Amino acid sequence: MSTPSRADLINEFKKDVIEALNPLRHSIEKLQHKPIPLILDNEKKLDELEPWEALTSRFSRVTDIFLSKYIRLKVLDLDPGFRGEMRDLLDKAEKIGLVSSADQWMKIRELRNKISHEYTPEDLNKTFEEVLKLTPFVLNELKEFSS
Q1: Terminus of the chain with fewer CB atoms < 10 Å: N or C?
Q2: What's the rounded Cα separation, in Å, for the pair 95 and 58?
Q3: Is 85 helix (H, G, I), strand (E, B) or coil?
Q4: What pLDDT band is residue 2 in, cutting at 50, 70 and 90?
Q5: Which 3 state secondary structure label does DSSP give 43?
Q6: What pTM, to 2 d.p., does this model score?
Q7: 40: three-class secondary structure by DSSP
């Protein structure tokens, strides 16, 4: 069995992003006009939290596939000698027109990292707010994946 080409992998990662976008869209449409549940200490209402946790998980999945797989490989395809950390990658992606704002995507990456680690109940509300605020940007940036 042959190793997939870089172009094949780019297309595979693009498909992965496309597949992950619909659940994210569903979550944001469901929640964008609902109040964020107030979480105090360990008093969590699981039914209220579940759709918000689904949104954060779906946000993390889309942004991780897009940045860590698709963008990384796309930049390497356009510049095989590229070496650098996430910030360098995002700056390069902005320069070649793959993303509109390296700064905004860096915030998204930091939020994604925050979501994947433990956080306190106080942090949870702030995380929900940030995901709610940044998801429309992500969906707009990735609208070409929907067509």
Answers
A1: N
A2: 27
A3: coil
A4: confident
A5: strand
A6: 0.90
A7: strand
